[in-house]
């Protein structure tokens, strides 16, 4: 899709709550914003989609071209994406389906949009089917009024994502141990584990960078007596960063090549990060409870 035309579709989509005319009139369309694998910049792409329950399915057809589209390569490198659907916008984890599950979902897509079968016939590559989860509409979102509440929200998300990765990894290894050699899953870890863990690693890096660059220096100015606390927190950031780098290196290949090493590094991450978050909350939450969130706009 030429850039100028694509931008016109994006503009019309946002101006009309997801409705566009021309060749996309009446089509189910969403906007997917990925982060550039190399540039780190946001890229928004209009895509057709098919609903599968509360999930949304998008296909990396690239009109049957021999290479995957840029947006697909982006989400493999940075799985956290933003989805715009009509007047709804939400963050999602993009997970390509694999094996028989991919074939099942592709058949589901083709049943509603037969043109994707033509795109598959036009290329030797297997068109990827990407699953985008929508947020639970019944999930309660607590009001956050202080910086302490914001810190707890971030820590809660990190803990939950780490538990999910750990549980899925242990389930994978249990399946390998319980089944015979012919029935065991492939020695890799699968894209579900990879995408979730990679998103966790990237969010953790962003959080710790923000703390080191902004939160800790600002707090030290008001609480110089806590210098040893901040020194310890920074040192723990460096130690956890080394584990995160090791995990990210293992996840660089879509088919995680060393699952046993990944499992060991994940266990190390769980132990070190859990202790770090507990210590940080013990010492910082009382100080942040009186700091309003969101911060007041400068006059």
Automatic annotation (TrEMBL):
It holds the Pfam family Hemerythrin. GO terms for cellular component: plasma membrane. Residues 151-288 form the Hemerythrin-like domain. SUPFAM superfamilies: FMN-binding split barrel. It comes from the Bacteria. InterPro entries: F420H2_quin_Rdtase (IPR004378), Hemerythrin-like (IPR012312), Split_barrel_FMN-bd (IPR012349). One of its GO terms (molecular function) is coenzyme F420 binding. It catalyses: oxidized coenzyme F420-(gamma-L-Glu)(n) + a quinol + H(+) = reduced coenzyme F420-(gamma-L-Glu)(n) + a quinone. Gene3D superfamilies: Electron Transport, Fmn-binding Protein, Chain A (2.30.110.10), nmb1532 protein domain like (1.20.120.520). Belongs to the F420H(2)-dependent quinone reductase family. This is Hemerythrin-like domain-containing protein. It comes from Streptomyces griseus subsp. griseus (strain JCM 4626 / CBS 651.72 / NBRC 13350 / KCC S-0626 / ISP 5235).
């Amino acid at each position: 899709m030429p850039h100028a035309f694509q931008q016109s579709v994006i503009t019309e989509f946002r101006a009309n709550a997801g409705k566009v005319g021309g060749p996309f009139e009446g089509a189910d369309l969403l906007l997917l914003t990925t982060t550039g694998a190399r540039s780190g910049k946001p890229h928004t792409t209009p895509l057709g989609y098919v609903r599968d329950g509360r999930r949304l399915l998008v296909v990396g057809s690239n009109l049957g071209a021999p290479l995957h589209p840029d947006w697909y390569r982006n989400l493999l490198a940075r799985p956290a994406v933003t989805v715009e659907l009509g007047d709804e916008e939400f963050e999602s984890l993009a997970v390509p389906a694999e094996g028989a599950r991919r074939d099942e979902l592709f058949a589901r897509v083709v049943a509603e949009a037969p043109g994707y079968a033509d795109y598959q016939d036009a290329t030797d590559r297997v068109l990827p089917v990407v699953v985008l989860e929508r947020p639970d509409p019944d999930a309660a979102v607590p009001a956050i009024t202080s910086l302490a509440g914001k810190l707890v929200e971030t820590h809660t998300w990190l803990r939950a994502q780490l538990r999910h990765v750990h549980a899925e990894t242990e389930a994978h290894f249990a399946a390998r141990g319980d089944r015979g050699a012919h029935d065991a899953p492939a020695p890799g870890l699968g894209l579900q584990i990879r995408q979730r863990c990679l998103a966790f690693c990237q969010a953790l890096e962003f959080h710790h960078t923000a703390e080191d660059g902004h939160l800790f220096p600002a707090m030290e100015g008001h609480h110089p007596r806590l210098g040893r606390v901040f020194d310890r927190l920074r040192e723990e950031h460096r130690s956890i960063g080394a584990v995160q780098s090791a995990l990210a290196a293992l996840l660089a290949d879509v088919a995680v090549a060393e699952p046993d090493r990944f499992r060991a590094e994940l266990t190390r991450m769980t132990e070190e990060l859990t202790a770090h978050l507990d210590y940080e909350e013990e010492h910082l939450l009382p100080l942040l409870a009186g700091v309003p969130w969101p911060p007041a706009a400068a006059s």
